[in-house]
Amino acid sequence: MRGYLKHLLQGAPPSLAQWAQLGYHLLPPAWRYGKAFRDAMSLLEASEQWDEKRLVEYQEKRLELIISQCYNHVPYYRQVFDEHGLTPRDIQGIGDLSKIPPLTKDTVRQRAKDLVATNVSFVELEAAHTSGSSGTPLHFYMDKTTRPVDRALALRKLLWLGYRKGDVMGFFKGLPLTNPNKFIRYFPGARELRISFHNSDEGRLSDMLDALNHYKPAFIDAWPSCLYILARWIEKTGRSVPPPRYILTASENLYPHIKDKIEKVFKAPVIDWYGQEESVAIALQCAYARGYHIQMEMGILELVPSGDGMAEIVGTCLHNMAMPFLRYKTGDLAIPGDNAPCPCGRKHPTLAKIVGREADFVLTPERNVISALILHYAFYDLPEVKEAQIVQEDLTNLTIKVVPWKRISEATRQAIIDGLRSRLESPKMNLVLQETEDIPRTKGGKRPFVISCLKLEDYL
Which InterPro entries does the protein's record reference (predicted)? Predict the structure, then answer.
């Protein structure tokens, strides 16, 4: 139903789309997403009791179906299999996936038509795209079951934290609402408060806080950068907010000092989760927040070593028969977990930490790779700075864009430059600070902290 309504309302007047969205949110999730959602919830309820061996058995059963689909009905994969002398019989389990070359974003862009299954009709396809936060958005298709399974996992993360039917949810994102003239919307049927940070001046921040005080969401689901801005503004003005039970973050790097600031101001624990629009690999933190439980029911997550104890996440979606992604290179980096038992008792293997994306790193002329996690601290505890972004156009030049609350003093400018230089440890790197009124968002509504135009593999 979701895909059909999105297609139906494309280009519709904002007022019509707004009313349609209101009616849509009156429906319970089981009706919004149909039988595929109900089946997924039944699967997730059962798999809560499974050990890792049983989870692997489920993955390999689904993998057999995906491999058969790819070989028989996806032109790109038939070519790949033939070129490597492979047939479905050669992929007997997860260990055999390494026989198949990884799929890159560039390949998806260049061979998009050949990646669509020939036995799936156009009406069964749901168009999707990535946010483009690290470059050009990637356009692809899902089948009618992929999104419902993803939505079931989104509900699982709430149930893990004690969500009850009727709890009010608050959503903070950088995307504009259906009606771009509004930035706050409440859906009484779904009990959802939606707030857009597409433009967030101090007047709007005040209205956002008024909405939080009025609706008092039990859970807040937010992009970290959005809630960090609001948290700093709350501190700056001395206002307060009713503490939610939990704050859930996703879609952006959760830097430690950002997590600390949000928890301190909102007086609630922050629980992070990892995923991507392509739905090839998902991992959730439970209430103990000691690691990310890999959601094996959604896909097969591989960790390909990339140095310094980190690994790239490579994923295989187990539910998208329309445009299957086998061994898809996400570009996301993680640190593997030690798989010590979690106090929650769940048997899913874990990731210790999500580090970021390859595009989140700055490369110095000395060929040192500096994480955005390190550079972000140069802006910590600078009350004059609202937002900032680092842009690397070439090996020797960094542009630092800074959005002030009101103005940037010379002392703050120097603190930023000194803080970055001490972390870059590169006398050859040229730093240029630009004060600006706004940092443009990507088409997906995000403002990446680091934008790098370099490909690390070209230099390292």
Answer: ANL_N_sf (IPR042099), CapK_Type1_Caps_Biosynth (IPR053158)
Query: Could you tell me the residue range of the domain that residue 368 belongs to?
Result: 364-459
Provide the domain count of the chain: 1
Q: Which of 361, 360, 339 is nearest to 350 (CA)?
A: 339
Phi, psi of 144 (to 5 degrees): -70, -5
In this predicted structure, what is the pLDDT of residue 12? 55
How far is C-alpha 424 from the geometric centre of its chain's CA atoms?
27
pLDDT in tens, 238-257: 999 999 999 999 988 888 88
Task: Answer yes or no: is 373 within a domain.
Answer: yes
Name the DSSP class of 398.
E
* Domain of residue 395, CATH code: 3.30.300.30
Find, among 204, 207, 169, 212, the residue nearest to 188 by Cα: 169
Most confidently predicted of 349-363, 380-394, 441-455:
380-394
Alpha-helical segments (H) within 296-430: 372-375, 410-424
Asked if residue 389 belongs to a domain, the reply is yes
| Nearest to 363, CA basis, from 438, 283, 275, 424 | 424
- Of 160, 192, 146, the C-alpha closest to 25 is 192
